């Protein structure tokens, strides 16, 4: 199988991190060696990007993080990850599995916070030119269900603390992105049991990979 960049997207508690193991297992089924699979997460995945992750998630009370500053921090972290980790692994023939990528920016900073799409795409082109994943897996969870799961995981970070309407707008943006990219995306109903979600994901991913 040729190298691929597969991204798992979705709201808080959608089951993205949980889905990663299932995605991995399907690639193994298709004959990929475990050593040829690279996991990354955003924001993060390089030493510098992990430092930026902490800045982005920190709910500090001495200064407000301006929406556009937040957007740029995400893109600095993403650029470091793409250029220093993702692209070299793709050139080496690996399957790279990403936990979030640019759809999260469009959904959260665009749909959620209201930063105009044009600003986001301008910044994207400055940051990573036309670099794009080969496949997006959208774990579609009801925001109420997802936030409940995220709460069960522990204390909420600065973004997880946003109100429900923010996540409802973010979900709508994700759904638009899916609609605009039918050939590059899989949508999984992420509201069901772990087993139900896992089997839908596996069926759809197998089907996609048969045709690449
Ligand atoms: N389908 C599911 N049903 C019930 N709990 C789930 C399901 N998927 C994930 N979880 C649990 O919900 C929490 C959030 O899942 P996680 O994979 O961390 O979501 P994300 O990475 O999208 O925020 C975890 O504790 C996980 O075990
Ligand atoms: Mg996660």
Automatic annotation (TrEMBL):
InterPro entries: P-loop_NTPase, Thymidylate_kin-like_dom, Thymidylate_kin_CS, Thymidylate_kinase. This is Thymidylate kinase. PANTHER family: THYMIDYLATE KINASE, UMP-CMP KINASE 2, MITOCHONDRIAL. It comes from Photobacterium kishitanii. The lineage of its organism: Bacteria, Pseudomonadati, Pseudomonadota, Gammaproteobacteria, Vibrionales. It catalyses: dTMP + ATP = dTDP + ADP. Belongs to the thymidylate kinase family. It holds the Pfam family Thymidylate_kin. ATP binds at residues 10-17. Residues 8-200 form the Thymidylate kinase-like domain. One of its GO terms (biological process) is dUDP biosynthetic process. Its EC number is 2.7.4.9. Phosphorylation of dTMP to form dTDP in both de novo and salvage pathways of dTTP synthesis. Signal peptide: none annotated.
């Amino acid at each position: 199988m040729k190298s691929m960049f597969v991204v798992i997207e979705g709201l808080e508690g959608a089951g993205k991190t949980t889905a990663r193991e299932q995605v991995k297992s399907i690639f193994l089924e298709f004959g990929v060696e475990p050593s040829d699979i690279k996991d990354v997460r955003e924001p993060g995945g390089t030493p510098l990007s992990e430092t930026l992750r902490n800045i982005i998630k920190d709910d500090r009370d001495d200064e407000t993080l301006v929406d556009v500053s937040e957007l740029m921090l995400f893109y600095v972290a993403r650029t470091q990850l793409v250029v220093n980790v993702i692209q070299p692994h793709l050139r080496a023939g690996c399957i790279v599995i990403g936990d979030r990528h640019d759809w999260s920016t469009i959904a959260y900073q665009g749909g959620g916070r209201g930063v105009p799409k044009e600003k986001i795409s301008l910044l994207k082109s400055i940051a990573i030119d036309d670099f794009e994943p080969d496949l997006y897996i959208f774990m579609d969870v009801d925001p109420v269900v997802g936030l409940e799961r995220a709460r069960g995981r522990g204390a909420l970070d600065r973004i997880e603390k946003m109100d429900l309407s923010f996540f409802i707008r973010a979900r709508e943006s994700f759904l638009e992105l899916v609609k605009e990219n039918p050939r590059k995306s899989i949508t999984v109903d992420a509201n069901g049991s772990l087993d139900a979600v896992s089997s839908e994901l596996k069926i759809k991913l197998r089907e996609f990979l048969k045709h690449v």
